[in-house]
Specification:
The complex is a heterodimer of chains A (129) and B (757). Chain A has 129 residues and is an alpha/beta fold. Chain A is built from five helices and five strands; from the N terminus they run E-H-E-H-E-H-E-H-E-H. In chain A, 47% of the residues lie in helices and 22% in strands. In chain A, strand 3, helix 3 and strand 4 form a beta-alpha-beta unit. In chain A, helix 2 packs parallel to helix 3. Chain B is α/β, with parallel strands linked by helices and 757 residues long. In chain B, strand 16 and strand 17 form a beta hairpin. Classes of the chains: A alpha/beta (129), B alpha/beta (757).
Chain lengths: 129, 757
Amino acid sequence: MPRKTILIVDDDAIILLALRQELRLRFGEAYAYETATSGMKGLERAAAIGAAGDELAIVISDWLMPGMKGDEFLRKVHELAPAARLVMLTAHADESDMERLSRDVRIEAFLRKPWDPERLFSLVSAALG
Amino acid sequence: MTGRVRTGCRLALAILSTIIFLASPLSAEGGLLNVLFISSHEAGTVETAEVISAFRSETAAAGHRSEVFLEALDSLRLPPPADGGADIENDLAERYRGIRFDLILAQASQAVEMAVRYRDRHAPGVPVYCFDTIDEDLITRYSAESSVFGRPLGSPLSPTLRLAAELFPKARKAIFLASVTDPDYVPGYLDALIALSDGYPGLELVPIINANFATVEKTLADAGQDAFVLLLPGGWVLPNGDFLSETEMVDRLEAEYPLPYFGIYGSTFGTGLVGGCLVDRAAMGREAGDMALSILFAKRKPVAWLYSNAVVPTLDWRALKRFDVPSSLIPEDAVVKFEPPGFWLQYQRQLMATGAVLLGLLFILLVEASFRKRKNLILAESNEKLEATVLARTEELRTANAELEASNANLEDSLRRIEAMQERLVSDVQDSVLGRIALGLAHEVNNPLGAIQASTSSMKAALVDPVGGMTSILCGFDEGQFELFRRGLAVMSGKEALVDPEETMSRGKNLAGRMDALGLSARRSLADLLADSGLAELSDEDLRSITAEENARVLAGLYRAQSIERGVAIALQATGRIASIVEALRSYARDSVAGPSASVSHIGESLSSAVGFFREAEFKDVDIACEVEEGLPEVPVAFASLVRVWTNLLRNSIQAMGGKGKIAVKAAREDPSVLVEVIDWGPGVDPALRERLFTPFAGKTSLESGLGLGLSICKRIVEGSGGSISHEEREGRTVFAVRLPAVSRPAGDCPEEAAHA
């Protein structure tokens, strides 16, 4: 049975650890949890997930990253896995960029750091069910 | 004077010199002839001087130089020596002993006799050349001699008589005045005269020979007007014994008896003589020279004894005027001397020279004048052109000025607008800088905040959740599960709680492999969970146990335990990060306010201090080599700030190189500044960041303590002190260059430092 996978992408490892832990404690083994520290690595992971036959259910990405920015990454990952739900998790909001992104791809939510855990959980639950 | 005028002068001078050179006698080269010249005439007179000069020229023209030894026998004239001149002969012999003569010249009768005698006795074989004598006996005697040659003079008696008769055709009497000094000659002259006078029928010959002076005077008085006087040279002896030369004679007589006097050998002029037959001594000298050459060098000996025609009828112009002689009566072959135009002839050479000089000067002046004229013309032309040009330029300048003023006004206007814009820009920039700072700040602080929030909330869930919380899980353990739990905790403890997610993933893969090997159902998510729980090093037995279905609670509990530990670690790290960001901001704010420091610092000391920070164990893999030039000047930066700049740059390099590698620090003078370079061989700065490298929060943070402010702090400090900071990648090296203004003459030098532990 293909595992539903949550992919978290952020160049700051502390976010990856905290977020993964938070989600795992909440959702247990209902999901597989994958992480990546850059947009490029995120795309690699997304491809690997698809190749392994698993389902990329949710992608949570930071925006300000060296190299590929979050919005570019989400656009690209959407091409790879159009069914995945996309969440932008960002410390600051560049309104215009976010607006443009929304017009190109469907973003489930724009979460600010620090994020509200309940909101996050409800997003993920919805993706499950 | 212009160069051309100078050339004209030179030309004139050249012409002058040529004329003078041509006019002067040539000097001859060739053989030397020793010639003994015995003369009856006085030495130094025209009789001897002209002869010698002409002789020399003649022989020189043939290439022979002649050394002429003159023996003038003055004394022979009056009276002849009693002993026949034997004394004189001995004197000669004495004087010229040892000299071998090539030729002996003898001028006039007595000299001829003396010369032949001397030759026969003292210079045998030497040829003798005789000239300037009319003594027929002498001629007869010696013409038979061998080696005696002659050119006697034709008698001037006939030509003189003819000259006088032609000038004074109305004369009835020809008075013949003869000297007493040579009585032997007189009869001959008389006979000759008588014979001659047959040719002049209307003329009565009146001889006065050896008469006393009274007789002379009486004869002259009786002669009346229509007479002329012919004088033989030789002088008279007056009754009182006084001797009168013919010159003195004429002076005495002509005052009282103003008749025309003619000298038969008219040798002296200016004496009142109208004229006479002058012996052309120069001609005689030339003939002598010519004969000498023939005698000495000709293959055939010349025919000896030829009569010379060297007499020239010569007249005194002033005397002619006195006697009112019409010029039509003057014979064509007569030489008229002392003519005023003759003056010009006499000074011909000098006048030619003067003329040449004057011509030259004239030429020069003309040339100069023409050049000046041309120059003036050119000047005038240039002046005109200049004036025209000046006018044109002035006009141009005026219009240019007007344009300038207009553009000036424009510029001022633009300047004012620019200033206004600048003010707006500055505030905009400030806003954007603040904006960027705020953005960066938000990012830097919100990440740790997010992590803290997430971890604390999950810790809470991990602990006290009524269903999934650890407390409830623990309560449900049996003993075996407790043991397994404790063993799991043991494996977990002491390990780093914050593990890189990548690392966790690879551990998960390994565990899956192990589980596979152990024949356990290798569910990936289980392996991941185990890895995430820090249970990668669980023993095989425990691994088997824990993967059993019934022990799922144990694994859940262990994961929660790990989560709590991890949560704490996350929170601690995150808060630390926030604290350092605040600190960085505080010091950034402090440094951005400070301007150039009143204090000055020593570059070398500050570098040593900075490098010293990196001697800690954590930087053991970092090799910092410091090279400081001697005698560096100080810089206007506070010491602590300067150290901060170096430490920030060094930290930046160390981070870029991943904590190990080589860094070179070089400090040198780069007038008027000091240049400090921090060079590393790391991966270099991300091209995307290069533009904003020195702006706050330009770089993203990673797991390590990154501030993102370090470089902007450096920039603030450096630029605040009037310096500059720059970055470039060259030849595989990353170079940060700091330039600081030099302040004073340095004191002392800096030690070289290489810091590594």
